[in-house]
Amino acid sequence: MRVRSLLDKALQGVCILLMLGLAVMVLAAVLLRTIGKSPLWYDEVAAMWLVWLTFFAAALVTLRRAHLGFDGAIKIMAPPLRRMLFVVAEAASLIFYAAAAVYGWRVLDIIAGETLISLPWLGYEVVQGVIPVTAALMFISQLLSAPDAWRRLNQ
Length: 155
Known about the structure:
155 residues; mainly alpha; 6 helices; elongated
């Protein structure tokens, strides 16, 4: 439970920092555009920042088991069927997260050397690196939250 709690706090912190950073960036860009000094990098970086926020928030949601589900439909099923569907869903999720991490990492090799248009010093490896990192975090989150989900399923 301690690892799960630490991961929850770390993911919350990253999400808060990304959200605050994005808000500051958007407000600054609006103010700068108002006075005719629009930053060239804003559109590209804001979109990237939003993707990062979305992926890290998805890892947090996975850890908390707060994603969309079919709890009502699952609860009315017979316990053996409910348990079987739980195992199948867990396996499918873990396979998906593992595939996203592995292939996300492989994509980084393919895009190596490419950079953002507006910030040529920032490589796409940094931008797209969020995919394998958060996929691995989602895999770990799924594993860490599975025992509690299993207990709730069988209550």
